[in-house]
Amino acid sequence: MSKIVSLLVVQAVFCFSFIPSTYADSALIKDVCKKTPYYDLCVSILETDPRSSISDVVGLAHIAAESVKAKAIAISNQIGASLGISNDPNLKTALNVCLNSYNTILRDNIPIVIEAIVRGDLMHAVSNAADAGNEAQICEESFRQNTIHPTNTIYVANQQLYALSVVLQFIASLMPVN
């Protein structure tokens, strides 16, 4: 009996070792991501989400929106922490502008995008995804105006959020029109 159990365990381990670490319909994701200017970023956020295996373009747009939201929350927290410890008045000015931008992204833009995706409202999904990217650009500009070095971790993360919002905008634009 123990030989049978051992054989079953070995067989199960062997079978499950070939399960891919990505979840999505690879062809759909590649097709969608080819239509964005950030192909690799698009593929990475979509393939790693387990919901992508059962998602159509609308589902992929929802995953992208939630990725923007998660990144915005992380950056907003980072901005708040940096405001608490910085003594540099130029950095504090830039961070306050960024905090305001990220509050707008989290309070206004992304909730509207998610609601529009759910309703199938292509126009509001795309325009608010673009607005989230614009807010990221306002943050970036505040760093430039206050002569903050572009290697600052918030500056770099902000550029990533901008790229994510562009991916979201392009995926949302592929949704079927209701």
Question: Which tags fit this structure?
Answer:
Butyryl-CoA Dehydrogenase, subunit A, domain 3, 178 residues, signal, enzyme inhibitor activity, mainly alpha
Contiguous helical run count: 7
CATH architecture: Up-down Bundle
Helix content estimate: over 70%
Class inferred from helices and paired strands: mainly alpha
Shape: elongated
Number of domains: 1
Could you name the CATH homologous superfamily? Invertase/pectin methylesterase inhibitor family protein
What share of residues are in beta strands? under 5%
| Main β-sheet description | none
According to DSSP, the number of beta strands is 0
Which CATH first-tier class would you pick?
Mainly Alpha
> What is the typical, i.e. mean, pLDDT?
87
Question: Could you characterize the architecture of this molecule?
Answer:
Residues 1-24 form the signal peptide. With 178 residues, the protein is mostly helical. Helix content is 77%, strand content 0%. It has a single domain (23-173), classed as Invertase/pectin methylesterase inhibitor family protein (Butyryl-CoA Dehydrogenase, subunit A, domain 3, Up-down Bundle), CATH 1.20.140. The chain is built from seven helices and no strands. Helix 4 packs antiparallel against helix 7 (153-173) and helix 6 (122-145) runs antiparallel to helix 7. The protein is elongated.
Structural topology:
Blueprint lengths: L1 H15 L9 H8 L5 H9 L9 H29 L3 H31 L2 H24 L7 H21 L5
Helix pairs in contact: 2-3, 4-5, 4-7, 5-6, 6-7
